[in-house]
Design a protein that fits this description.
The complex is a heterodimer of chains A (about 650) and B (about 375). Chain A is an alpha+beta fold. Helices cover about 35% and strands about 25% of the residues of chain A. The chains are: A alpha+beta (about 650), B mainly alpha (about 375). At the A-B interface, α1 and α2 of A face α6, α9, α10 and α11 of B.
């Protein structure tokens, strides 16, 4: 007995030490976890406790060239749910569905999501104040109302396709909104708190607020006033010609700034979901490619003049066709233009003349100029969705392809490419990179953070060549196919284009794209404007030509815009060749600053056949419409406004 | 034999009461969130644990005053009753299944766990058997196997529930008792070898088991599945750091750590009271183990010695397994922390065991 108990005692001691050693080992293990590993375990644990409710920063405002607000962020209520805190899910879903006019089952599905925060979308975003109040009054547990930005458009649908649209999360989807999404969006902030595993707030824990940073404002090169001129003209053209599409661009050739860019059909960016996707997803001005037609002859002319293959005084005989590789390529004018100078060739837009120029240049030289002018590649404008255009592969260019390319067929270009090419001619031969954003502005301080500098792409032709081309194009407007673009006092230079549209590889009868590409003033161009109308359908069934349909519109856009920009009219330009159909014009004298007596005397002296309409009362004329120097039809009415102070002391 | 009429070991009483108090406080702190969530009453578990503690203390002091020798004749009856209960609990409709284990008898929350009673019955029976088996312990078949057979039979029944934790505790306690009773180390080696072989066979049958068992080595391999509970436990311990977040300030108890009031109460204790709290609790258990084996050494007879060694061994084995699991030191095995975890059967049985231990100490010869 004693012996066994002695054995037992020895074993008890061994057991005791083993167990105590094991306990000691666990103490060591605990020290390793709770002291050694504490900091990273704590970090991991915190990450599982932490919940962040995002708080959006205000999306930046978009201004026009003159600082007018085109898009800003208005605040509107948004409904959020924390599903774990919603006690009565079916009841809450029913109540919300009623107020938001949503499907009850859809709302319930959102409330049942295993997620920290759920937005009741789509109708729970951007709700009205009345809806917000109604929801607030229900005091639903787990339902929160927060503020969310909603894009507002003071000018309605103006420049919609340039501005672009934003989605449900205020993310930029198209246009400037997409291109500069990172800049406009700013930095998201958040409310951070500790949550229980079921999503409810952990009691007695702190809350942390990281305020969001507002996005930056953008100043565009777009001028709302010029944009309005352009859109007004497009609207009128649509009313008159019921076309498929219209595209127009106005550019400042010296900087590459786009002052206006518009298309038809367009849409209202505040309500874009109500429009077909093609209207808000595509900006035809940079995306659409088509055969340019005669506007492209400017490129051929520039190349030929630069390469000294021709002078404008050289003679050319057009029998009405040009034989290329055994085939007769016809001139647009039946019977031809006969004997003419190359200046006449340009004025008349004579195809055989340009085929001759193309042959003189050869395919390598002509195509190198086409590429130097920027065709066949993106211009790099700061807008998404730009097209490349298509050129013949040089190896595939035979005599016929060379001939058609020379007068603008068989190549495919975008409107913006044509505008930039024309801009190069306007800008003394230097091709610029187009852009629509000119400055980045701090949203809170209003200070300019960064400005966009004009970017030269390359010199395409010499300044002297560019001047020759401009003179020729001024002549086109003064005396040739572009005469409908003529603006008295403003030296408009330009080129018409009429291209038949191929559908499925075949030219579709009656389907034309008429265009006009102009610049003014020709001696020192301030503006380049372009307009293309796809499939005009004149009501009287008249033939469609760029010269008859597009040219007058571009003329008006240039005239209005130059006048708005304060560019003084000049009389140095080529006088317009009178057409027998047009009534005689008289020049309106400048009456501003005169007294009413002087006006009468002056009007009589000038022999102008004008009617006067006097508005207001006072001693002096403070304003007149149309302004002095304007050419108007005889017997037109001039309105003069009277005031008490002379606006123009020098006039006396 | 000299019958000493002395006071029982007050150190054991004091340590037990301190652990019990810590347990009550921690059960309240750890369970308040889950109680409110499940029963709309943050005191749900605390009130029940308080009741069980009161019952347990009554049992403890009763047993402390009942001569443990009077238990010896009852040992065979207890073991048969235990086996009966272990069988009855398996009958569908009679036993209650909670958390995937058919381990409870009774109605609703007031269920009892036959496996808890089986642990004490086995200790009692093995002490009874081994006390007179000194001459037989040389023999593997006559001395070593019969008590092992009893334990294995109980483990077999418990594994049908299944309850791995209780099985491991029973085997651990059995080994402690066999070793204490003078079993040859070689025999224990054979048992360990047999266990390894059985384990190898199980793994060979289904290789995924090895993955599950070694998952504790890197719980982050399956952070939302098998590793989830252990990871949450480590987060709790790590967040606690040296001094803890303060009593009541656990964050992991906000439904991150499942069942924070039972098997993982030590994690919450570590989060709120830090390493210092954790080490203090382990130190208290160390004192208890020391006093338990001191009692075993000075007991008047072999039966008393073995009974004390068995009860102390059971407490020690449970502490090692529980804290081992919570600290991800051993594979996941569900077992309560004695005196601290919530659980009526566990608590009352532990206190009953301490009561018996106290009576042995009272009769011990110094």
């Amino acid at each position: 007995m004693r012996i066994t108990q002695r054995t037992m005692r020895r074993r008890f001691v061994i057991l005791l030490f083993c167990l105590l050693a094991a306990i000691g080992g666990l103490v060591g293990r605990l020290a390793y976890i709770q002291i050694g590993q504490s900091s990273w375990l704590q970090q991991m644990a915190q990450a599982t406790w932490e919940r962040n409710i995002p708080v959006e920063g205000t999306r930046g405002t978009i201004y026009d060239d003159k600082g007018r607000t085109l898009v800003y962020t208005a605040s509107s209520p948004v409904i959020m749910a924390v599903p774990a805190q919603v006690k009565d899910k079916p009841g809450t879903a029913k109540a919300l569905a009623g107020i938001l006019q949503m499907n009850e089952a859809d709302v319930l599905k959102m409330l049942q999501k295993v997620s920290a925060i759920v937005y009741i979308s789509p109708r729970g975003r951007r709700i009205t104040e009345q809806q917000a109040t109604a929801v607030r009054n229900l005091h639903l547990s787990g339902i929160y109302i927060s503020e969310a930005g909603k894009r507002a458009y003071p000018y309605g649908d103006l420049a919609a396709q340039v501005l672009g649209i934003t989605g449900d999360y205020n993310q930029g989807l198209t246009g400037v909104e997409k291109q500069y999404d990172n800049v406009l969006a700013g930095q998201r902030g958040y409310i951070s708190f500790y949550a229980q595993a079921n999503g409810k707030r952990m009691p007695g824990t702190p809350e942390f607020y990281q305020p969001p940073a507002d996005g930056m404002d953008l100043q565009l090169t777009i001028d709302a006033q010029i944009q309005q001129f352009v859109e007004r003209e497009i609207e009128q053209a649509v009313a008159e010609y019921n076309p498929d599409h219209v595209t127009a661009i106005v550019e400042d050739p010296k900087t590459g700034s786009i002052l206006a860019m518009a298309n038809y059909p367009s849409f209202n960016p505040a309500d874009w979901k109500a429009y077909p996707p093609s209207t808000y997803n595509q900006n035809l001005a940079i995306w659409q490619t088509f055969e340019p037609g005669s506007t492209f002859k400017v490129v051929t002319l520039s190349a030929a003049l630069q390469e000294k293959k021709v002078t404008l005084n050289d003679r050319f005989y057009d029998p009405g066709y040009y034989e290329v590789a055994g085939r007769k390529v016809k001139c647009w004018k039946a019977g031809g233009h006969g004997s003419q100078s190359f200046l006449n060739v340009v004025e008349n837009s004579c195809n055989p003349g340009f085929i001759a120029l193309g042959e003189r240049l050869g395919k390598d030289t002509l195509f190198s100029y086409i590429k130097k002018f920027g065709f066949g590649q993106k211009t790099g404008i700061d807008l998404p969705g730009e097209g490349n255009g298509i050129l013949f592969k040089l190896s595939r260019v035979g005599p016929l392809e060379l001939a058609t390319t020379a007068f603008g067929q068989g190549v495919s270009v975008t409107p913006i490419q044509q505008v930039m090419a024309m801009g190069a001619i306007a800008n003394g031969g230097i091709l610029m990179k187009p852009h629509v954003v000119q400055a980045f502005i701090d949203h809170d301080t209003g200070k300019v953070v960064q400005t966009v500098q004009p970017t030269e792409v390359r010199r395409v032709i010499d300044a002297s060549t560019a001047k020759q081309v401009r003179d020729a194009l001024e002549s086109v407007v003064a005396r040739g196919s572009g005469k409908n673009a003529y603006q008295p006092g403003y030296r408009v230079a330009g080129k018409t284009g009429t291209a038949q549209v191929a559908v499925n590889g075949r030219y579709e009868p009656g389907h034309y794209i008429v265009s006009f590409m102009g610049m003014a003033p020709a001696d020192n161009p301030r503006l380049v404007a372009y307009l293309a109308i796809d499939y005009p359908r004149p009501r009287n069934g008249a033939a469609v030509y760029g010269g008859t349909i597009a040219a007058p519109i571009v003329g008006r856009i240039l005239g209005d815009s130059l006048h708005y920009l304060g560019v003084p009219p000049s009389s140095a330009g080529l006088p317009k060749k009178a057409s027998p159909l047009e009534p005689a014009k008289v020049e309106v004298p400048n009456f501003v600053g005169m007294t009413i007596g002087d006006v009468k005397r002056s009007a009589l002296q000038s022999g102008a056949q004008l009617n006067m309409e006097v508005v207001g009362s006072g001693k002096y004329v403070i304003l007149q419409s149309p302004p002095g120097g304007t050419q108007v039809a005889a017997n037109s009415t001039v309105r003069i406004y009277l005031g008490d102070t002379s606006p123009n002391p020098q006039a006396n | 034999m000299v019958r000493a009429n002395r006071n029982f070991d007050y150190t054991i009483v004091a340590v037990t009461l301190v652990l019990l108090t810590i347990g009550l406080v921690m059960v309240h702190s750890a369970s308040s969130v889950i109680s409110a969530q499940k029963f709309d009453d943050p005191f749900y578990y605390f009130k029940r644990q308080l009741m069980w503690a009161a019952l347990g203390l009554v049992l403890m002091f009763t047993m402390a005053n009942v001569d443990y020798h009077r238990l010896r004749p009852l040992a065979p009856k207890f073991i048969i009753a235990s086996f009966l209960f272990l069988v009855v609990v398996l009958i569908p409709g009679v036993g209650v299944n909670r958390g995937g284990s058919q381990a409870w008898l009774g109605i609703g929350s007031f269920g009892i766990q036959p496996s808890e009673f089986a642990k004490l019955a086995i200790i009692l029976f093995l002490a009874h058997y081994l006390a007179d088996a000194a001459d037989r312990m040389e023999s593997f078949v006559r001395g070593f196997l019969p008590p092992l057979f009893i334990s294995l039979l109980a483990v077999g029944l418990i594994m049908l529930e299944p309850d791995l934790g209780q099985s491991v505790v029973i085997m651990g306690t059995t080994v402690v008792l066999l070793f204490a009773a003078g079993a040859r180390v070689r025999h224990i080696g054979v048992l360990a070898g047999g266990g390894l072989l059985a384990f190898a066979a199980l793994v060979a049958m289904a290789p995924y088991r090895i993955k599950r068992i070694v998952a504790f080595l890197d719980p982050w391999q399956d952070p939302l599945g098998k590793g989830y509970q252990v990871i949450q436990s480590l987060y709790a311990l790590g967040s606690g750091g040296l001094v803890g977040l303060g009593l009541g300030n656990s964050r992991q108890k906000y439904l991150y750590l499942p069942e924070p009031q039972t098997d993982f109460i030590y994690s919450i204790l570590g989060e709120e009271l830090g390493f210092l709290g954790c080490a203090t609790v382990l130190a208290l258990f160390a004192v208890l183990v020391w006093r338990g084996y001191r009692t075993a050494m000075y007991a008047t007879d072999e039966f008393g010695s073995l009974l004390a060694a068995g009860i102390t061994g059971m407490i020690a084995v449970q502490v090692l397994i529980n804290v081992g699991v919570v600290t991800s030191s051993i594979p996941a095995t569900g077992i309560t922390l004695p005196f601290v975890s919530f659980g009526g059967s566990s608590l009352t049985l532990m206190l009953t065991g301490v009561g018996i231990l106290l009576n042995i100490s009272r009769q011990a010869v110094r």
